[in-house]
# Entry
Amino acid sequence: MIPVQINVVSRQEEPLLSRTSVKAMLDFEKATPSYAEVTALLASTLKVDGKLIAIRHIYNLFGAKRAEVTAYIYGNEDKKRDIEPKIKEKKEKKASK
# Structure
């Protein structure tokens, strides 16, 4: 029995942004998979490099062990770096006196 399964529902080319929009349904048994796990699943299912995938949303369906995934697959890393929002790094708190 497979703990996590992903089915691609639709793919749409976006040539102006050099990317492909992908919508998929995710079936899981326990907790919702993390963005990193979903990225790895999509990469293996679609046979693309994981570095070119950007997960936008994971929407859980209430009361079900299913989720809807929205992701983008870029043509190259430079386009992804230019288009995707930057991830802010967490700052360490200084010890107060």
User: Anything to note?
Assistant: The longest strand covers residues 4-14. The helical segments are 35-46, 77-83. The chain is about 20% helix and 40% strand. The longest helix spans residues 35-46.
